[in-house]
Amino acid sequence: MRKLLNTLYVNNPECFLSLENDNVFVKIDDQVLLKVPLINLESILTCGYKGASIRLMFACAEKGITLSFLSESGRYLGSFVGESRGNILLRKEQYRISDDIEKCCAIAKNFIFGKLYNARWVLERATRDYPLRVDVERLKIACANISDIAKEVLDCDDLDRIRVLEGTAAQYYFAGFNELILQNKADFYFTNRNRRPPLDPLNALLSLAYTILAHDCRGACEAVGLDAYCGFLHRDKPGRASLALDLMEELRAPVADRFVLSLINRKEISGEDFEISGSGAVQLTESGRKIFFGAWQQHKKQVITHPYLKEKIEWGLVPYSQALVLSRLIRGDIDEYPPFLWK
């Protein structure tokens, strides 16, 4: 299994990134704020608008380190990556499967089954751990509805129908999401999912977590030799990493949603860590992003036992592990894609 390296998060928009003696230097003007050996990194995310030096970008490309740029609000802007080093035979088979709707459907329904299984378990876990603090009956009803839809997904052979079922299940899931917020409900409450831009602190956290998860899934696809832009559930669209979005579906609830809820319920973040931009978007302040990125990095280092591989791995390697088993399916080494079923 691949070794988990670090991700460098730069959240100050005034920072400029450069390379000196194989170290990444984070600077404001001539002041060095941080120095990190490039060899310890697998990716870099920066919210700064001053950018990075050409020398650093070339070094990242050469070493397979993804350099991604986010806006101050956490919106994904783009990535700089090196040449594709994947197995051309693997990618050609990926393209052939992508053009075969029946094969796409067989893979896509397992992505969505995994997503619904994990979403249901997030709700069920709340009823088990906090029966006196949540509306157990409401969450049980949502779980039952999601479970019924998950069974229908497994029997479905139509991509459009799978998308409809996923959307219906998402409505049941998010209808009970506010019950999972146990602390500071005055600042963090959930009425509906809104984005582009997020209009409240909770949606701002979810959007940023999904952005980073998509970045990790994109890197995982490239690491195992797959084309991150050729998906099976999400169809081809210029500029969209469709396979990365496919891969992250089953990881939204156990990775991103649980992380956000943990930040709130442990009181690691508060309403004071947010600000409203001129456009009305709610976004984290610089200090808020520092809290978020620091906690995300620590979360990635937590060890779990992978339900399919039966190996102990860090949470940060889960996207890679799923990309790995997906590549095995595409090569014909296994007969069916095994979704990540967390419990």
Please render the helix and strand layout as text.
Elements: E1 6-10, E2 16-20, E3 23-28, E4 31-37, E5 41-46, H1 54-63, E6 66-70, E7 76-80, H2 88-98, H3 101-129, H4 136-154, H5 159-175, H6 201-223, H7 242-249, H8 252-265, E8 274-276, E9 282-284, H9 286-300, E10 303-305, E11 312-314, H10 318-331
Parallel strand pairs: 1-5, 5-6
Antiparallel strand pairs: 2-3, 3-4, 6-7, 8-9, 10-11
Characterization of the model:
With 343 residues, the chain is of the alpha+beta class. The protein has 2 domains: 6-80, Ribosomal Protein L15, Chain: K, domain 2; 88-331, Four Helix Bundle (Hemerythrin (Met), subunit A), CATH 1.20.120.920. It is built from 10 helices and 11 strands. The strands form 4 sheets. A 4-stranded mixed beta sheet has the order 1-5-6-7. Strands 2-3-4 form a 3-stranded antiparallel beta sheet. It has a two-stranded antiparallel ribbon with strand order 8-9. It is globular, with a radius of gyration of 20 Å. The relative contact order is 0.13.
Q: Which tags fit this structure?
A:
single chain, 343 residues, alpha+beta, Ribosomal Protein L15, Chain: K, domain 2, Four Helix Bundle (Hemerythrin (Met), subunit A), 2 domains, four-stranded mixed sheet, 10 helices, 11 strands, 47% helix, globular
